[in-house]
Amino acid sequence: MRRILMTTALAAGVMAYAGGFRVSLQGVKQLAMAHTSAHAEDASVAFFNPAGISFIPSKLSVAAGGFGISNKITFQNTSTLQQSETDNPLGTPIYAAVAYKVLDNLSVGFSFSTPFGSTIEWPSDWEGKEMVQKLELKSYFFQPMVSVKLAPWASFGASYIYAKGKVDWTKALTQYDGQLNLLDDQATGHGFGFGFYFQPDNQWDVSVAYRSPVDMKAKEGKATFMVPSSLAPNFNGGSDNFKATLPLVDEITLGATYKITPKWLISADYNYHGWERYNKLTLDFENVAAGNQPNDPTVLVTPKNFKNTSSVRIGTQYIFNDMIAGRLGWYYDQSPYADKDFIPETPSFDNYVITGGIGLKFNKLGVDISGAYAMPKSRTFNNAYYNFAGQAKADVFYFGLGLSYNAF
Q: What is the pLDDT of residue 1?
């Protein structure tokens, strides 16, 4: 039974279109400018840097939006030339934020976002079915925050992160003519964020922010073994409980915006992600001896071998008139693992993305539309641990619609 669950890992990854399983979609306006962060026009800055809410030019600001993500992964066995493609549903991450200036130098805010999560679905009979057939991950970040102006041109902010998540994973048990499903919809985690935001003059915005790791803990996960009834006694009657922890990694962001003219600005970001802490994943079953540890056969330890990564983002905005703004951007995001560690439940690629969009302003109401086309670099891999080799490529497109309102 040791090899039955060798690929099982709680929500080990789902994003074909981001470094690791981080979803960089927390602001429609920001996405149009390569998802850069040094923008304090409305409450959407709350996710990127809690200190930024001190510089929103409104006492009360509200922002919300959502995205659609179309993505397809193609796998080809280089020996047989047989191909398999995912049939993923449309991804729909969302966000919402509010900020309120209590005093001239004190602001409070709240951010809701879905920074990790998607669904990947391979054919049920594809070559890698014993690793994954379908994997659904959802995560929700709730972040209350406070920001204090240290000076007219500088602020400090901090936030508390409460996270909830769900994982639903199905894979084949070919040796037993069955399937395994792992389900947990009560995973939780905690973290924090803090940052500094600067506006030294009318031309510059500078943002420095840190978001801590969040360990998503599944304490009462359910494992369902769908096997012939004659084999069910070997699998604790067909069901078991499990525990696991998925580390959502920390992130450092350095961002700057420079207004070349009153109508034209450019923005740039550098992000650093601490993926190295995800070097393995431990799954602890309550009864079923499906592990690989000699001292405890119910514990499965799976190597992940992730490495720290960075991303570079460049965006621009031009205001055509009092009502219309145009935006463009480009960014590069690294995959956190080498070709030899490629796994289909987290089909990550080095990613080049072109973004664009428009902003419409109707007095105090803003309407933002954005789109992005990703160009993931194809991978040729041979993962000896899983005995899985071939070529993989991805096609990804996203679009978003956001609203913002600066009340007074």
A: 52
β partners of residue 120: 135
Contact 54, 149 (CB under 8 A): yes
Distance CA 43, CA 366 (A): 12
User: 55 — phi, psi (to 5°)?
Assistant: -105, 10
Burial call 152-173: b when 16+ CB within 10 Å, e when fewer: eebbbbbbebebebbbbbbbbb
Termini Cα distance of the chain:
64
Note the pLDDT of residue 22: 80
Query: Of the candidates 4, 19, 21, 2, which has an alpha carbon nearest to the alpha carbon of residue 345?
Result: 21
Give the containing element (helix H, strand E) for 178. Answer: strand 178-198
Picking from 300, 176, 187, 182, the residue whose alpha carbon sits closest to that of residue 241 is 182
Please give the pLDDT value at position 248. Answer: 86
- The backbone torsions φ and ψ at residue 47, rounded to the nearest 5 degrees and listed phi first, read -65, -40
**Greatest Cα pair distance in the chain:** 75
Q: Is 47 helix (H, G, I), strand (E, B) or coil?
A: helix
Is residue 109 within 8 Å of 99, Cβ to Cβ?
Answer: yes
* Sites in the chain below the pLDDT cut of 70: 1-20
Give CA–CA dist 392/381, Å, rounded.
8
DSSP codes of every residue in 104-172: TTEEEEEEEE--SEEEEE--TTSTTTTT-SEEEEEEEEEEEEEEEEEETTEEEEEEEEEEEEEEEEEEE
Per residue in 257-316, pLDDT (tens digit) is 999 999 999 999 999 999 998 888 888 999 998 889 999 999 989 888 899 999 999 999
The C-alpha atoms of residue 249 and residue 244 are separated, in whole angstroms, by 16
- Phi, psi (degrees; rounded to nearest 5) at 6: -60, -25
